[in-house]
Write a structure and sequence with these properties.
Number of helices: 9
CATH class: Alpha Beta
Number of strands: 7
Largest sheet: 7 strands, mixed
Oligomer: single chain
Strand content: 15-25%
CATH superfamily: Vaccinia Virus protein VP39
Structural class: alpha/beta
CATH topology: Rossmann fold
Distance between the termini: 5 Å
Radius of gyration: 17 Å
Mean pLDDT: 91
Number of domains: 1
Low-confidence stretches: 1-8
CATH architecture: 3-Layer(aba) Sandwich
Bound molecules: S-adenosylmethionine
């Protein structure tokens, strides 16, 4: 197993961005009140002791399990669920408006294979059992451009330790960004980690989206850096 740093005794919240925004419209509040309690992962199962077996979260079996960290309004996650009904997903998004938008989108669609967490994704990562995930998406994470805030970035040596622990051998860590400094940071951090291998063999492998790529809302906005988007696919080494 990869080198694992000691875990904190109590779940720690490390969310630095905003958690609330504009007031919610009624329909969005209703899904938070009525659907969220059924889909959220019980807080008492988040002990950060690596003892949350994800199979216990789903009533029906699944063929693969993925975690999406910081799903925003959830368009990417919704599309994945529609595309792969046999896969199960855990989505983490602390922003209330994002969570409510996602829940509203899926309320009338099959949602037996989704569980959510409206808080820091690392509470989930630190609690899951070893080698239970087929993949992790970290799409357009907050860049935290100031040097003194770099320690807030979700891709860090300590968090990569946890991702390596919960990914299956050959499991994928898929990251994207249009922020060049963050792209370089993520490539460096993941490449330096002994448990991860970059799958890219040529520049086009990270400059162009993989086949069947689902654009996130952020990417779809074609923000000022859209032409700088990078798609970074790392694989957890088979042998650690
Ligand atoms: C720039 S947005 C990108 C949203 C979405 N992935 C997309 O591409 O459209 C970054 C998201 O990460 C979420 N986030 C920030 N810190 C987080 C954390 N510790 N755990 C989970 N999500 C987090 C934010 O609330 C925000 O919605």
């Amino acid at each position: 197993m990869p080198c694992i740093r000691p875990l904190a005794k109590k779940p720690q919240r490390r969310v630095f961005g905003r958690k609330t925004g504009r007031p919610l419209k009624e329909g969005r509040q209703v899904v938070l009140d009525e659907l969220l309690p059924f889909l959220q992962i019980p807080e008492d199962s988040l002990t950060e002791k690596a003892n949350l077996n994800p199979e216990t979260l789903f009533a029906t079996p699944y063929t693969a399990l993925w975690l999406e960290i910081g799903f925003g309004n959830g368009e990417h996650l919704t599309a994945l669920m529609e595309r792969h009904p046999d896969h199960a997903y855990i989505g983490a998004e602390p922003f209330v408006n994002g969570m409510s938008a996602f829940l509203k989108d899926i309320q009338d669609k099959p949602h037996n294979h989704i569980r959510v967490h409206m808080d820091d994704a690392m509470m989930i990562a630190n609690s899951l059992t070893d080698e239970c995930l087929d993949g992790i998406y970290v799409l357009n994470p907050d860049p935290w451009p100031k040097q003194r805030h770099h320690k807030r970035r979700i891709i860090s040596p300590a968090n990569l330790d946890q991702f390596a622990r919960i990914l299956k051998p050959d499991g994928q860590l898929i990251m994207s960004t249009d922020v060049p400094d963050l792209a370089e940071w993520m490539v460096t951090q993941a490449s330096l980690h002994p448990a991860f291998e970059w799958t890219a063999e040529k520049a086009d492998d990270w400059r162009t989206p993989p086949p069947d790529w689902i654009k996130t809302r952020y990417e779809g906005k074609r923000a000022k850096g859209a032409d700088k988007m990078v798609y970074l696919i790392f694989k957890r080494s088979a042998a650690l």
